[in-house]
Amino acid sequence: MKASWFGKALLNLLFPLRGCPLCGSREAAGLCSRCRCFVAAAAAEPFCPICGRFFRGPGTGVCRECASREWPFVFCRAALPYEGALRKAVHRLKFGGRRAAVDYIGDLLAGVWEREPQYRQGEILVPVPLSPERLGERGFNQAALLAAALGEKCGVRYLPVLAKDAGAPPQAQLGRSARHVNVTGVFSVVDRRAISGKTVVVVDDVLTTGSTMAAVASALLEGGARQVFGLVLGAGRTFPRNAR
């Protein structure tokens, strides 16, 4: 599902982009010098090849957590570490309604898509859904905006085939162990025929503990998907199993 030209024009009219799309600096049009350095440095950072989280310091192989557990998704990748300017950009998007940077953020996700050959298998992009309560409060789902932007750039269908039960508190308010319990069983597939036998790429804004991505992937597999990949804008940091 591609965003129409009219919808994009209206979005840009209502929420015009002024300054740097990440930090909001008015230094110049496009990325400011500091954010350009941030994006360039992130491209060279080591990360876990399974969960996609960036390493705290040098290391090789998978992270400590992925070495000791199995995820329902094949792998996940992130465009940038979830810190600094990206954290500010995500907060402005989610809580301030500043959606003008979505097109640029879609470029970041598309760059990750192009660098990872396995994404070529992806047949459907599925955003992580919000609960009806949260969607009503915010007025939009940031993951759906990202998935739509990515789908338009990569030519892959975007289908919101998941629902989230009401009542679960936001993940950001919880600790690591509570996050896993909080999302267990809260996602469900509303259109099984759309994903049956398909390779699905789940799109979200942030991956920290991986609990949400795991819960969504489990729901998709139970709903008939063949395999699930993840793609997020930002990922937290973790420790490499083989630290140097």
Automatic annotation (TrEMBL):
InterPro entries xref list: ComF/GntX_DNA_util-trans, PRTase-like, PRTase_dom
Matches recorded under Gene3D superfamilies: 3.40.50.2020
Coiled-coil intervals, chain numbering: none
UniProt superkingdom: Bacteria
Pfam families from the UniProt entry: Pribosyltran (PF00156)
Domain Phosphoribosyltransferase: 157-228
Entry similarity comment: Belongs to the ComF/GntX family.
Protein name: ComF family protein
Organism, as annotated: Thermodesulfitimonas autotrophica
